[in-house]
What does this fold into?
Amino acid sequence: MMSPDVEHEAEGGVDFILHHILEQPVIELPTVLGINLTITNHVIMMWIASILLILVFGLSFRKQRMVPKGLANALESLVAYLRDDIIVPNLGRDGRIFAPYLLTAFFFILLNNLLGLVPFGATATGNISVTASLAGLTFITVQVAGIRKHGLGGYFRHFIPSGLPWFIIPIMIPVEVMGMFTKHFALAVRLFANMIAGHITILALMSIIFLFKNWLITPFPLAIILFSSLLEVLIALIQAYVFTILSAVFIGASLAEEH
Amino acid sequence: MDASSSAFIAAGFGGAGVTFAAAYGISRLASVAMQSIARQPEAAGEIRGAMIITAAMIEGVALLSAAICILLSFK
It folds into this structure.
């Protein structure tokens, strides 16, 4: 997860943790139109994840057979599970048009989460900008799906649930609008905080070893660190799954017919 | 007591409260889920899916305030 550099210990506790959590620039580039174009290690991790996805899926599905063999078989069973248990129950059979976005989101988030656990890797989804962009994509998809299905007027009528007395409506509309933004904000923060919390725990436990300045203490924090790392693998899988299924639920909610 | 030390104390108490609330919420959810799985084993798949999603949402709220506590401890 990080290179074992002993001189990090001299920086002080919080700096040691922050150095491995925040993104470190790799290639400095200028700021164009207010957007900082520096290549950081998170950017490189996202590139590696994208290239890995394109390579793995592209190469294993090169020969399209009726019954795939090998890696394509495993990937296809995973994709079929996602489609049948997440996309179809929430979006219906003609909601499969959203399957490319949801499946891409799942595999991209999964690969980014797992790349943070290999040595010399950084968690790109541990960056609030990355998770905010992913949640923003879900937000845009939800709005576009709702407007496409119900038209602009019908989309605004979604903010007023049916069967309400007239004097509650001025209170309900801001509440519904806020709820719409809060759901996607929570989507971003949930993924970000889950990824960051695991790393901060492990880094803080590693600092215990440096604090004692005695290598004999190592097995005890190491056992807890091992357990935390395994837990982090599980959390990586679960968070990717939860992001996908919540995006599917939100898109399905915007597509739902009002009675 | 200056602002920095009270920020540390607040972060500590906040973290403890968040952990307690999240653990209590998820344990109640898990106990009901296990009872219903024991009652109807053929619905175990659906119950497991719903349990994981709800646990992730509860944990999302808990980690949101954990992130606030960490921000406090950096002040």
In short: Residues 6-10 of chain A have pLDDT under 50 and may be disordered. Chain A has one domain: 6-255. The longest helix of chain A spans residues 169-212. The first strand of chain A starts at residue 25 and ends at 27.
